[in-house]
Amino acid sequence: MKVTQAEFVISAVGPDQYPEDALPEIALAGRSNVGKSSLINRMINRKNLARTSSTPGKTQHLNYYRINEDLYFVDFPGYGYAKVSKTQRQVWGKMIEKYLLERDTLKLVLLIVDLRHPPTKDDEMMYDWLKHYDIPICVVATKADKIPKSRWQKHVKQMKEALLLRKTDAFVMYSSETGLGKEELWAHISSAAGLGQEEAQQQEGEHHGEA
């Protein structure tokens, strides 16, 4: 997908702040410091639209990024960061749960994990929770550039087995540094958001018009 326009829209804390234009939404979930901001920036070819931080727990709201007037990336607060108070974690948890269960325009959750390490308990819980509620998932294993190619498959196998990944769920090996997996991930996102279908319908309409 060619990104011609990308903008930060709002840091939302509740449904009354969510955009109302009914564009498809792709949510990004993952533990703190797993590289969600870097992934967003690489996907949209921008250096720092999504603010990367060396301080985990920086994202405290649902950050909305509008892409090409076609869809939104919705960046969640990172989970599993110990320095955030239990009360704050509960507030985030309720906000995210409400969004995931009630947001009609949500089309796909990208579960971002670190390919270098086995999934954390939080990663496993998030995956199981999303499966329980039948929410579409694509697991994205970042930081592939930090592992020798010869060990990629070993780490992928370890990741899939630990998560008990269903065959029906997409899995993309990714690197924000090299762009590995970028096109494959865009294909999954476009399909979930129905973007390919719209283009096909448009072209079909044009053919009918010519006929």
From TrEMBL:
NCBIfam families: GTPase_YsxC, small_GTP. It comes from Paenibacillus chibensis. InterPro entries: G_ENGB_dom, GTP-bd, GTP-bd_ribosome_bio_YsxC, P-loop_NTPase, Small_GTP-bd. CDD domains: YihA_EngB. The gene is yihA. Belongs to the TRAFAC class TrmE-Era-EngA-EngB-Septin-like GTPase superfamily. EngB GTPase family. It comes from the Bacteria. Pfam families: MMR_HSR1. Its cofactor is Mg(2+). Keywords: Cell cycle, Cell division, GTP-binding, Magnesium, Metal-binding, Nucleotide-binding, Septation. PANTHER family: ENGB-TYPE G DOMAIN-CONTAINING PROTEIN, MSS1/TRME-RELATED GTP-BINDING PROTEIN. Necessary for normal cell division and for the maintenance of normal septation. Signal peptide: none annotated. This is Probable GTP-binding protein EngB. Residues 22-195 form the EngB-type G domain. The keyword Endoplasmic reticulum does not apply.
